[in-house]
Amino acid sequence: MNGAMARTTLETAQVNGRRSRPSVLLIEDNLTQLDLYSLVLQEELNVTTATRAEKGFAIATIERPDAIVIDVLLPDGDGLDLCDRLRQHQGTTSTPLVVLTGDDQAYERAMRVRSVDAILKKPCPADRLLTTLHRAIAARCVR
Asked: Got the DSSP string for 92-131?
């Protein structure tokens, strides 16, 4: 599905959805990257942020965003373990999970995790992250 089709599907889903714009939770401990991604994503998505795994898990299970972006290396936990926890939680079992990592070993490990919808290598351009999120959310709406 190309970016334009993903956006069209997403816009169609929004009419029948619970929000006027899709929401994304961004869990990233690097404040510079968090600010950059937030700035770009908020042009088209409702963005909530967290800098720690536990805070991200709490927000995800309460707010139930349309997608979650998770850094693999977080100060209080492993992002891939967080993905597994989110897949096991009733409210987030089908939420698209996009993983970000700049670490080669973590990237290889993420490639083997089935609970992840997409893996992006840092540095990841913000527009690529946005396109990936649109596709993941649109695919969930079609399921």
From this structure: GTTS-EEEEE--HHHHHHHHT-TT-SEEEESS--HHHHHH
The tally of domains found in the chain comes to 1
DSSP state string for 22-45 = -EEEEE-S-HHHHHHHHHHHTTTS
Span 11-43, pLDDT tens digits: 434 444 455 899 999 999 999 999 999 999 999
pLDDT score for 19:
53
pTM of the shown model: 0.85
Q: How far apart are CA 94 and CA 114, in angstroms?
A: 12
Q: Which domain holds residue 32?
A: 3-142
Degrees to nearest 5, angle at CA 83 with 40 and 51: 50
Residue with tokens 């290598």: 121
Instruction: Specify burial of residue 6 (Cβ count, 10 A radius: 0-12, 13-18, 19+).
Output: buried
CB atoms within 10 A of CB 31: 10
Which domain CATH number covers 36?
3.40.50.2300
Query: What is the rounded CA–CA span in Å between residue 58 and residue 79?
Result: 14
Which residues touch 86 (CB under 8 Å, ≥6 apart)?
57, 60, 61, 68, 92, 93, 95, 97, 115
